[in-house]
Structure formats: C-alpha cells, structure tokens
Amino acid sequence: MKLLCLLLCIGCILLSCSTLPNLQPADHSERTELPQTCQRLFPNGKWQFVHSIEAVMPGGQRGLVMGATVISSRNKSAQCVLMTIEGLVVFDARYDQELVIHRAVAPFDQEGFAAGLISDIQLIFFMPQGPLVETGNDPNGASVCRYQTPDGGIVDLVIDADHTRHIRQYTAQRRLRRTVDAFFTKPETNGGGPDFPDRLELRAHGVAGYTLIMDLVEAVPLIN
Amino acid sequence: MKKKQKPHHLLKALFLITAFMCLAWADTWEGIQSAASNITSVRAEFVQEKHMEILAKPVVSKGVFYFQAPNSLRWEYRSPVQSILLMHDGRTKRYILKNGAITEDAGAHLQSMQVVLQDIAQWLNGRFEENPAFSASLEPNRKIVLRPKEKSLANIIQRIELILSDRPGIIAAVMIYEGEKSYTRFEFKNTVLNQPLRDSIFRKIS
Prior knowledge:
The complex is a heterodimer. Chain A is of the alpha+beta class. Chain A is globular, with a radius of gyration of 18 Å. Helices cover 19% and strands 43% of the residues of chain A. Chain A is built from 3 helices and 13 strands, in the order H-E-H-E-E-E-E-E-H-E-E-E-E-E-E-E. The relative contact order of chain A is 0.17. Chain A has a 13-stranded antiparallel sheet with strand order 1-7-8-9-10-11-12-13-2-3-4-5-6, covered by helices on one side. Chain B is α+β, with helices and mostly antiparallel strands. Chain B contains 4 helices and 11 strands, in the order ααββββββαββαβββ. Chain B is globular, with a radius of gyration of 19 Å. The N and C termini of chain B lie far apart (60 Å). The N terminus of chain B is likely disordered.
C-alpha cells in the first residue's frame, strides 16, 4: 500500500512537471521589461558556434561528436555540421526556408534525424516563432515569457532568480516536448560582449527521449 | 688559412650527404619500408585542424599519440575535449573524460575509426600499399597520396595525403580530404622514436 502511494505521488509529481504550468501575472515593471530581456537570450546577427556534443541515448549509451553551427538571426537560417572528434564529417545540413542535406553518414541518415536536429537548433538559437501570449511567474517564482508557436504548441522562456535560463517547449496538447537548460561556468562579460552559455543541456522528453550536453568551444561573430 | 677551411668544407659535405640520405629514404617504397622497419615505437604530439567552407576559422584540436609496433596505438585528445582511443590486441575502445568522470564512448562511428586507426598503424609500419580500399602513389616532395578505389568510400574520403619528414621513418603531416574545401590536417611534432613504452599505455587510460 505504501509502495502504491509512493508510486502515485511520484506519478503526480512527474505529471505536474511535464505539463504547462499556470503563470502568475507579472507586475507592471516586469511586464514591460521581460519581453526585451527574453529577446536578449538569443544571439543577434550571424555567428559560428563550435560545441562538443555528448549524446545520451535511451538505455544510457553515450557518444561524443563535435558540432559546428552557423546561424543567422536575420533570416533564421542555420547550417549544422557534425563531425567525429577526428574531424570526419558525418552530417552536414543547411536550413534556409527549406532543409538541404549535404551529407548524412549512418546512423545520422535515419529518417527524421535531420529535421529533428534543425528543430533543436532553432529552439536553442532563435527566438520562438509566434506571438508572445503571456508573461508572468511560474510556481517556482521564475520569470516566464510564453510564446504560442504556429503548430499550436507553446515555448516558455524561463529566467530564474539567479539568472540561469531555460527553454521549455510544449506540444499542442500541452505535454512537455523539449527542455533546454543553460549554464554559465565562467564569469559574465559585464556588457563587454554577448554572453553565451558555456553549457547547454537539451532534453527530448518521451519514450525515445535523449539528452544532448553541449559544451561551448568557441563563438565567432561573422560579418553578414 | 686554407688548412683551416678544410674541416668547414668537410662538414658541409657531410651535411649534404646526410641530407641526401634523408631525402632519399622517401623516394621509393622500398626506402620507406626499410626506414619504417627500424621503428619499434613512436610518441608524438599532434595538432588537428578541421577546415570547411562554412567555418570562419578552423576547429583546432590538440593531443598526443603513442604507437608500438606492430599494431598498438593510443590516440589521445587533450583539448578542446579530452578523449582517449586505445587500440591493442585487435580491440578498439574510446573513452571520454568529462568533469572528472570517465565514460566509454559507444558511438556508432567507432567502427569506422577502428579502420582508420588500423590504417595509421599500417602507415607507421611503412605498409602504405596494403590497404585494399586505397591505391597508393608516391609523389615528389616526400608525398604519398592514397585514393579510394570504391566510389562508396570516395563519397566520404576523396583522398589522403601523407607528407613524410626529412627524418627517415617519420610522418610530418596527414591531410584527409573529404572535398576540396573540406579537409582535416594533422601536424605532428616533437616526435620521439624507439623509446621503450609501457604496455599499460595501450590498455589503460591512466
């Protein structure tokens, strides 16, 4: 009986964590400032990022690749190259209105992988598509900008009191689909330049869920 | 005065003869294999540069490798990621070192890396012509070019160029071309030959 109660409690906690939380309305000053603060969470202009990417697959298997991503915030285009540590390119694709795959070596040639990867890149690097529908505070007290995406889903940009950042993506059925947690291990640049997280952890929720742990190697501004 | 110049000329001549001997080692397959047959172990640092058209500057990785004849290899990256690939007794394993923790990399690309590592071991043994997947040609300026025979492999690797050092038995650089504008360059330095290496280097990560 005790075990059943425990399992029910865990189930309720998991359910409450994985569904869209209600927001308490933000106060007037926060309502004004928060949208601009949320906009500043994403890189502006054209950038080249290099990350080491550790993938944790269902079953706990781990693999490491290097990822080079060139993004442009202006037209929301992205080119992504995945390579082995030894430099062999296993995946190369570009998204600019449409997806073009230049190279996909097994197992990166599986159907849906390229579209899923580009979708993850867009979630990490670009402002959500769709209107800002709500601002406020979640049950933990964090500030939230809530956007409704064209597919009927929701993207929450979450800023904790200690300024750590999260992105939470929900399906049209309000189930948690992706979370991105941003970590800063080095001191911020105090306005000397844009601050990019030293580590990003993307979690894909669901039965075939996976985790990508992305450690920033370098961020290079590019001329448009 | 003339007597004083003799040792100077002699040194020059000796230097030239040695230089020609060194250059000559890479002129023929026999010369290369003969020089390689004297190698029992190699330790070298390497700098790896990945060049691609989309990259504003190359992605640079650094590390060290150890080779023990005939087929033991330790390929260790120290930056920007820490990763160790061990090849010993026909088995290949890769480990990732992160935040003080060690995990085994189960990436599917490991199998293809095992093939590349076996190639590297063959190169260090001077057996450039033994891989049936590549045709090897010896070109001027101590360059060996390996071209894939099969189109399926050529879609992934266009060609591999190996630049041999003027020191007999040593490879100075390797370029792996995936396309004309996409290639990886490995440059080797501080190469030490034939020093005894502990067996555990190829079996344990620390």
